[in-house]
Amino acid sequence: MVSLEKMARLAMECRFDSLGRSASEDAASLMPHSNTADCASAKIEIGGCGPKNSPTEMIAARVNEKKLAVLGEGTKHDVCASTFSPRSEPLPGICHAFTQDGRCVSLFKTLYTNVCSHQCGYCSNSAGCMNRGQAFSYTPEELARITLSLYRGNYIEGLFLSSGVGRDEERITEKMIETIRQLRQEHCFSGYIHLKILPGSSRSHIQEAMMLADRVSINLEAASASHLSEICSTKSYESDILQRQRYIQRLMTELRSEDGRAILPAGQTTQMVVGAGGESDEEIFQRMIFEYNEINVKRTYYSAFSPQQGTLLEARPAEALWRERRLYQMDWLYRVYGFRPSEIRYAFDESGFLPNSDPKMAIAREFLDLPLDPNRASYQQLLRVPGIGPKSARRIIARRKSQAILSRRELAILGVRIRKAAPFLKINGWTEATLERWQA
Amino acid sequence: MRAGRNFLFYLRLHRDCSERLLARAGQVEPADLETSVEREHVRMRKMADEVAGEVHRMKAFVRLTPLGPFVLYGFLKPRHRIGEHICEHFARRNAGIIVVLGNGRESWICLCREGRIWRKWGNGLSESLEGLKFALKRDNGPQNEIGRDDLDVDHLWQIFYDSQCCPERENLAAFRRHMPRRDQEAAGMRLVNKKREASLEDFFGWV
Question: Which candidate in A121, A169, A220, A280 could, as Cys together with A313 as Cys, close a disulfide (CB 3.0–4.6 Å)?
């Protein structure tokens, strides 16, 4: 076995590590040996706005805790927390921590600045908000440094960087790109980076961002131009948002990284605010189909509207969280289960809204007239049974090749949620009472 | 958390896995095991899944603290035999830096350099860190003497973590499901450390 002395020598000889040439020096510079008890603000390099700080100045500077909290809070309604990125040498994505609302915090999600000239009625950072707090902004150096410190300590898997547009979206976009350039090129950061494209960003900036990030996204916020105008008077649905999505889509097919691989491994995504613009679930569904088929987004995210103090939509009631959940279920049925839009339409009521019940159950009641025999049903048929997902359907098919499935217990062991599925199945010639089927 | 293709690997790391059980598991095709309903196979699958779950959560929950430019250390007290695997994961992620994980009784030390992994086992975490301090000091001279730093990244994280919570979405059941207290304790997470009562190990085994 290797001795501690040899390991120490090997580590000291290392001139390159996962965080680049200067990482060891940086780490040393980040660790003053004094034993300061003042924990009001942690000591790491932070610069104010201005020229690049020297390492010595960086050590002396302190993190503004309020800035960290305010700019972090600015992204809490952005629900994307995925860290999956099929890069050449991927590090496994891990969900590092969950907040008390049950959501994963695996990324350092933050705004670059909370200054914004848009007038979005749902956002507390918008120009029209009466309760706007203090304006804060990072510098690329300090944001890169905080990200690196958190990444090295295994607090985060990567960076999710969004921002207000400031007074000029091009300037803010340049700063955001500079941040991720420093991370990738100066510090050889191999973690995950999700960058928000600001509405109205130029094609060249989008291209630059795409070369460095794992995923980019631009939020639709509403299902159509008319609904967007209800909640934001300063953004153009077509030119500010859809046009930028098409840029990204085209660039993804045109561009290759230096080593010939496709860029942007985790693709582009989008997000809608549900319930702010008065759109129906069916309208959201139509937009979702457009986004998946025409724009080729990887995921569409939904965030239930929650009124913010001082905003234009302050008086509007908060959207029920179950609506968001039902939309995700519908999205899942289309994207993962491969349901046809003509089938999913049966889940909507007459006014185009999803009721607060499992949409798959509603569709099954409409289409599954006769119970299915799990020993004979096709994969697609099994997927349409509530309580059977892609994994359990695959297991049923693999299992029945060697041995017939004759009991509920066997199905339960294969991962089927038997209480939901039993009314739609004929197991060993037996079918559940129909009353249970209709009440399930 | 499903063990999947690495079934045998995870099964081997289970604290109750015997050589006989491993030999029997080796005779079954992984694909058959996935769909088998036999009691023993179901038990093996559960054991492997249990380990895979703990591996996943330890990779997520363990926090690393720098000790000078060459060492990262963290607390880890797993239920299964996964210490070395977790340590290796962090060594690969932090190439060129010695990663030390452990508790009062045992520790794992790994270094990844040029794609090769160097491993070592030690007694207590504090003992291993003392040994490393001594080795680094001797080879590198007093100018790079390592000591406990006071960079409070944990404090930064706590501020950010608190900023991410939406009270209107509170879902404590989901929180407890995703962050079992037992696993938080195994990784020495601060969320729990603040509240739990001190044990003898905290005095005898901790640095």
Answer: A121
Here the ipTM equals 0.85
The domain ranges of chain A are: 65-85+92-270, 369-439
Backbone φ, ψ for residue A195 (5° rounding):
-115, 130
Q: Is the pLDDT of residue B109 over 60?
A: yes
Supply the pLDDT for residue A234.
92
Identify all chain A residues contacting B86, using CB atoms and an 8 Å cutoff.
none
Q: How far is A64 from chain B (nearest CA, A)?
A: 10
Of residues B56 and A100, the one with the higher pLDDT is B56
Q: Tell whether B117 and B205 lie within a shared domain.
A: yes
The model's pLDDT over A163-174, given as tens digits with 9 standing for 90+, comes to 999 988 999 999
Return the sign of the alpha-carbon dihedral for residues A200, A205, A211, A212: negative
Q: Which residues contact A415 (CB under 8 A, 6 or more apart)?
A: A389, A391, A392, A395
Give residue A181's Cα distance to chain centre.
Answer: 21
- B96 lies in the same domain as B25: no
* pLDDT tens digits for range A179-209: 999 999 999 888 899 999 999 899 999 999 9
CA distance B18 to chain A (A): 24
B180 reaches A (C-beta below 8 A): no
Report the number of distinct structural domains present in chain B. 2
Q: Which residues of A touch B181 (CB under 8 A)?
A: none
Asked whether the beta carbons of residue A31 and residue B68 sit closer than 8 angstroms, the reply is yes
pLDDT band at A38; cut points 50, 70, 90: very low
| Level-2 CATH architecture, domain A65-85+92-270 | Alpha-Beta Barrel (3.20)
DSSP A381-397: HHHTSTT--HHHHHHHH
Distance from CA of B140 to the nearest CA of A (A): 8
Distance CA A100, CA A395 (A): 34
Min distance B86 CA to chain A CA atoms (Å): 12
Question: Chain B partners of A12 at a C-beta cutoff of 8 Å?
Answer: 70, 136, 139-140
Whether B183 maps to a domain, the answer reads yes
Range of the domain at B25: 1-36
pLDDT greater than 80 at residue B118: yes
Q: Are residues B72 and B171 in the same domain?
A: yes
Which tens digit of pLDDT belongs to each residue from A145-158?
Answer: 999 999 989 999 89
| Secondary structure string (H, E, C) spanning A74-116 | CCCCCCCCCCCCCCCCCCCCCCCCECCCCCECCEEEEECECCE
Interface test with A, best of B33, B150, B158, B170 (most A CBs within 10 A): B150
List all residues of chain B from 26 to 65 with a beta carbon under 8 Å from chain A: 31-32, 34-35, 37, 42, 56, 59-65
Give a yes or no: residue B17 inside a domain: yes
